[in-house]
Design goal:
With 859 residues, the protein is α+β, with helices and mostly antiparallel strands. Helices cover 24% and strands 25% of the residues. The protein folds into six domains: 67 residues, Phenylalanyl-tRNA Synthetase, Chain B, domain 1 (2-Layer Sandwich); 119 residues, OB fold (Dihydrolipoamide Acetyltransferase, E2P), CATH 2.40.50.140; 192 residues, 3-Layer(bba) Sandwich (Phenylalanyl-tRNA Synthetase, Chain B, domain 3), CATH 3.50.40.10; 96 residues, no CATH class; 208 residues, BirA Bifunctional Protein, domain 2 (2-Layer Sandwich); 88 residues, 2-Layer Sandwich (Alpha-Beta Plaits). The chain has a seven-stranded mixed β-sheet, with helices on both faces.
């Protein structure tokens, strides 16, 4: 919302010495985000004057129209002679007054103006458009001054075009639609600065007459609960918009079109009430306001033919839809240069309907932006009366005595709130009298006791200087307050909204920045420590952590090749997803993690090791949708329990993916490409970091999509599968466009048992006995099983065992492999003899032989 301070001053008594910083502080303190405050006088430097076009010479031989103009700028150029200027616009003629910037001037954006040779002539300056002056986006032609503007050639053009004003641009949040108007901002500033203001809507507008201004039928009073209209006949179709109105529209960033349309835009900016002007001579038969029939067509004012939806509201005549209600009018009934009879329409539309229609048609008009935020339903008659009077004042004509007003607006429901609630919620002492004062300043009607006898807030209640209430201030501080919100505040529906208004108007800066006392605790929980330990371990191993959105597409399960009965296909669907393409919550970390891997590969990264720790979501069997709960009270224990029962199970998982080389090659030798073994090792590292003892961990071959069936390992703890690791299936790699032999690991951290208390290690001062053992087993025998057999057979003297070589060849025979382990034996109280070490080794080999059929290599 862009508005000039001069316009605001018409309605609120701003201090004469109010600085830009003070104005910004006042607006920000009210919760309105200030985008910019610009003093227009400083945006154009140098001589900017009014000029009168004397004559125009059309230059030919160029690809576009070029005109050589002689413009009278008085004595501003120092000579009094007409200024010669080359211009490419064609919307002005001799005798028109225009805005000229002379050589030495600087336009917004640092565009310096000087005399230059162009198109075979010398151009001494520039004739300016509105956009070149920074007054708006209209660059279709030169800014031509209206005939009634009192300015002579050579006069300073800044006051004439509004460049002597200060423009404020405010970003309006979705809950404060009333602030998208001069009326709303003026009311807010009056409250913040404690000054009087004059409500432009505080007028006595004629009510409905027995005979309507035009026959209208509203078939859907939910989508349109109020519809007003009046007619003006016999206007002058050539009457221009007054200069002051065009200037204000231009400052607000709205293009001037025609007098009738400009009036509707002007009142939308001033009052916040969007309107529409119909050429009544182009309307065929009575008007009907209804929902569209799916498939109906309408060509809107932007020239687009639109297929309508059954949820859209339309205004129709005998020919069909002529306006997409609350969003944009239609071509067949728009005001045209020859229009002599105008039907002004001001209505009140359902914000939800408007919001969905605007998004469905991608048509975010200024009217739609206001409707979806909420418009005062008490404004239609006021806006209609202002519109017909402005039109006849500047274009003549006769105002029809008939007034149409189909009013089905329901009064806002009163809100019951404890006067001590703001103080309890915010932690600042707000006396009951102060609470009542602030709520009345918003425009609310405040009383005590029951809702009976509480008058509905007046639609035209004014600011703090004149606000009144049907009830006096409450004398009993303990009595609850019954608050009826004003018609322009549809966002006030619950006690929490009123609390927010109290703290907002009293001042956010009055709320102290005090940290709550931290209760005594024990630091991080065991679960938090485990997650941090796992993250640190993977990072130290060279993995890079990523954080992904937990949203996935329905295609994700197919890309992973999951079977139809795979439990990971049972997902939770979001009711309002951020993107329609990703409406599901993930049941595995792999889809978003692999997407991140693919994105980085596509950007030139070849060697990648990524990991993520996060929650996955599993729907509870038989869970219903959570019950709807308001904010007016604390939910009951039963409501809490019902809501908890609907919440999906959310275990923490850790996943890692690898692609490319884990060891780079170079002059020192060949590198090594990531393989399934690296993914398995990542799983081992996670389990070790989580505090799971190695003797409780088992790794064995498995089959689990999306992993390759021959290169997939199951990770077990105490016999239960807690995750999988290995190389991804080739079809999955192809579907996701991943590098060949991409590997992955995923573990369920919540499935891991609590870490046992680890005793301090006993360090022996005696030397170890190191013995290498190579055993031959079947190629299908996991190395982990061999290691376990060696450990159990060696007994207490075995300090460590490590696999250091794997060999398969013709010497061993088909289906056989050799596993070489380095065994370290040590005693805590003595140096082992050779015989003791050999005996322990033989026992280890014997256990492997009896359990797995292993034989010593070479024996």
């Amino acid at each position: 919302m862009r508005v000039g301070v001069s316009w605001l001053r018409e309605h609120v008594d701003l201090p004469a010495d109010l600085s830009a910083q003070q104005l910004e502080d006042a607006l920000v303190g009210l919760g309105l985000e200030v985008e910019s405050i610009v003093d227009l006088a400083g945006t154009v430097a140098g001589p900017l004057v009014v000029g009168e076009v004397r004559d125009i010479e059309e230059l030919t031989g160029f690809k576009k129209p070029i005109r050589f103009c002689r413009v009278d700028v008085g004595t501003a150029n120092g000579t009094g002679e007409p200024q010669e200027i080359v211009c490419g616009a064609t919307n002005f003629a001799p005798g028109d007054r225009v805005v000229v910037i002379l050589p030495g001037g600087v336009l917004p954006g640092g565009f310096a103006i000087g005399a230059r040779r162009t198109y075979g002539r010398t151009s001494n300056g520039m004739i300016c458009s509105a956009r070149e002056l920074g007054l708006g986006d209209d660059h279709s032609g030169i800014l031509v001054l209206a005939p009634e503007v009192a300015a002579a050639p050579g006069d300073d053009a800044r006051p004439v075009v509004g460049l002597d004003d200060v423009v404020v641009e405010v970003e309006i949040t979705p809950d404060r639609g009333y602030a998208m108007s001069v009326r709303g901002i003026a009311r807010e500033l009056a409250q913040a600065l404690g000054v009087p203001w004059r409500d432009p809507a505080a007028v006595d507008a004629p009510g409905a007459t027995a005979t309507p201004a035009y026959p209208v039928e509203v078939r859907d009073t939910v989508g349109c609960d109020r519809f007003a209209a009046r007619v003006v006949r016999g206007i002058d179709p050539t009457a221009p918009s007054p200069a002051w109105l065009v200037r204000r529209l231009t400052t607000a960033g709205v293009r001037s079109i025609s007098l009738a349309v400009d009036i509707t835009n002007y009142l939308m900016l001033e009052l916040g009430q969007p309107m529409h002007a119909f050429d009544l001579d182009r309307v065929n038969g009575p008007l009907v306001v209804r929902r569209a029939v799916a498939g109906e067509k309408l060509t809107t004012l932007d020239g687009m033919a639109r297929a309508l939806d059954a949820e859209d509201m339309v205004i129709c005549d005998d020919t069909g839809p002529i306006s997409l209600a609350a969003v944009m009018g239609g071509e067949t009934s728009e005001v045209v240069p020859g229009t002599r009879t105008v039907l002004f329409e001001a209505a009140h539309w359902d914000p939800v309907m408007v919001s969905r229609t605007a998004r469905r048609h991608k048509l975010f008009s200024e009217a739609a932006k206001r409707w979806e935020r909420g418009v005062d339903p008490a404004l239609p008659l006021v806006a209609i009366d202002r519109a017909v009077r402005l039109l006849t004042e500047h274009a003549g004509g006769e105002i029809g005595a008939e007034v149409l007003d189909l009013d089905h607006v329901a009064p806002p429901a009163p809100i019951l709130i404890d006067a001590a609630e703001p103080a309890r919620r915010i932690g600042v002492p707000y006396p009951p009298q102060r609470v009542v004062e602030l709520l009345r300043g918003v425009g609310c009607t405040v009383a005590t006791g029951t809702t009976a006898g509480v008058a509905s807030a007046g639609a035209l209640a004014t600011g703090p200087a004149t606000a009144t209430s049907a009830a006096s201030a409450p004398d009993d501080a303990a009595a609850p307050l019954v608050v009826a919100p004003p018609s322009w505040r549809p966002d006030l529906t619950d006690p929490a909204d009123l609390v927010e208004e109290v703290v907002r108007l009293d001042g956010y800066d009055a709320v102290p920045s005090v940290l709550p006392p931290a209760p005594a605790g024990r630091g991080l929980t065991a679960t938090q420590r485990r997650r941090r330990s796992v993250a640190r371990t993977l990072a130290e191993a060279g993995y890079v952590e990523v954080l992904s959105y937990p949203f996935v597409s329905p295609q994700a399960a197919d890309d992973l090749g999951l079977s139809a009965d795979d439990p990971r296909r049972r997902t939770v669907r979001l009711a309002n997803p951020l993107a329609d393409t990703d409406p599901l919550l993930r049941t595995t970390l792999l889809p978003p993690l692999l997407t991140t891997l693919r994105r980085n590969v596509g950007r030139g990264q070849r060697d990648l090791a990524l990991y993520e720790i996060g929650v996955v979501f599993h729907p509870r069997a038989g869970a219903d949708a959570p019950p709807a709960m308001g904010v007016d009270r604390r939910p009951s224990e039963a409501e809490f329990a019902a809501a908890d029962a609907a919440v999906p199970h959310q275990p923490w998982h850790v996943a890692a993916v690898l692609a490319g080389d884990v060891e780079p090659g170079g002059w020192w030798g060949a590198g090594r490409t990531a393989s399934w073994a690296d993914a398995v090792e990542a799983g081992r590292m996670v389990l070790a970091a989580a505090g799971v003892p190695t003797d409780r961990v088992e790794v064995r071959a498995g089959e689990h999509l999306p992993w390759h069936p021959g290169r997939c390992a199951e990770l077990l703890v105490d016999g239960s599968v807690v995750g999988h690791a290995g190389e991804l299936h080739p079809t999955v790699v192809t579907a996701l466009e991943l590098p060949r032999r991409t590997c992955a690991m995923e573990l369920d951290l919540d499935a891991l048992p609590d870490a046992p208390v680890t005793p301090a290690p006993r360090i022996s001062g005696f030397p170890p006995a190191l013995i290498d053992v190579a055993v031959v087993v079947d190629t299908t025998t996991p190395a982990e099983q061999v290691r376990r057999a060696l450990v159990e057979g060696a007994g207490e003297l075995l300090e460590s065992v490590r696999l250091f070589d794997v060999y398969a060849g013709e010497q061993l025979g088909a289906g056989r492999k050799s596993l070489a382990y380095k065994l370290a034996f040590r005693a805590a109280d003595r140096t082992l003899t050779v015989e003791e070490a050999v005996a322990a080794r033989d026992a280890a080999v014997a256990e492997a032989a009896s359990r797995l059929g292993a034989t010593l290599r070479g024996s």
